[in-house]
Design brief:
Blueprint lengths: L2 E7 L5 H12 L4 E3 L7 E9 L1 H4 L3 H4 L3 E9 L1 E3 L8 E3 L5 E2 L2 E2 L6 H9 L3 E5 L8 E2 L2 E2 H6 L9 E14 L2 E8 L5 H12 L3 E11 L2 E2 L4 E2 L14
Parallel strand pairs: 1-16, 3-14
Antiparallel strand pairs: 1-3, 2-3, 4-13, 4-14, 5-6, 7-8, 9-12, 10-11, 12-13, 14-15
């Protein structure tokens, strides 16, 4: 059972948990993946099993990705998602130079979303695995230490509003590798003037590989014809 596999990660576990589970059922210790999904997120992961294949995992790690995301407006989170401490937003509603406007209308949301399309620098979440002098940012944040991050160059190729009924907003997005959808949602809330946090995320595509091709994590033991990438 060696090779590259398309795995459908369920919500509620870490990417490390996925690797640990595969190690237990395969007996293979050398396992890696081509991109982390947070516990809140679900969807497509490309996993390499066996040393010969983990050496080549970088072939997939820089591929573009597509997601379906859910944002909850009107509140903010310390982690930019539902895993953090959530508080109602106290941002003043400021749009178009006016204060105290009503909740964002669909046209407001669509306009702000389209404003994110293109190359830009994105600030990673404080609670992220970005390294600062050898330490992960989330470890520093949990210790109450200052976290000094710098914007990361990303590209948002396409973004589409799928559904909006305040406070819930759903959209699809195609992005370059390294893009934090949590940060995108946080920035969306800031621009709309109401605050927002990511309440759901599904990775649907990595490069040319689709979630529909993937196998559910816990079905691997009973499936003979596993979905090999190459």
């Amino acid at each position: 059972m060696l090779g590259f596999f398309l795995i459908n990660k369920p919500k509620g576990i870490t990417s490390h948990d996925v690797v640990g589970y595969l190690r237990r059922i395969t007996g293979e210790k050398t396992i890696g993946h081509a991109g982390t999904l947070d516990p809140l997120a679900e969807g497509l992961m490309i996993v390499a099993i066996g040393r010969e294949f983990t050496k080549r995992i970088s072939e997939f790690s820089k591929l573009d990705k597509e997601y379906m995301a859910e944002a909850t407006l009107g509140a903010i989170s310390t982690t930019y998602d539902a895993e953090g401490d959530i508080t109602p937003s106290n941002l003043p509603l400021v749009r178009g130079g006016e204060v105290g406007l009503p909740t964002p209308q669909e046209e407001d949301v669509m306009e702000v979303l389209q404003g994110f399309v293109g190359k830009q620098g994105q600030m990673p979440p404080i609670y992220s695995a970005k390294k600062i002098k050898g330490q992960k940012a989330y470890n520093l944040a949990r210790q109450g230490k200052a976290v000094e991050l710098v914007p990361v160059p990303i590209n948002i190729y396409e973004i589409k509003l799928l559904n909006y009924r305040y406070p819930l907003l759903k959209f699809s997005v195609k992005v370059s590798s390294g893009t934090y959808i949590r940060s995108l949602v946080h920035d969306l809330g800031q621009k709309l003037g109401v605050g927002a946090y990511m309440s759901g995320l599904i990775r649907t595509t990595v490069g040319d590989y689709k979630l529909e091709q993937a196998i559910d994590l816990y079905q691997i033991k009973s499936v003979v014809d596993l979905h090999l990438v190459i």
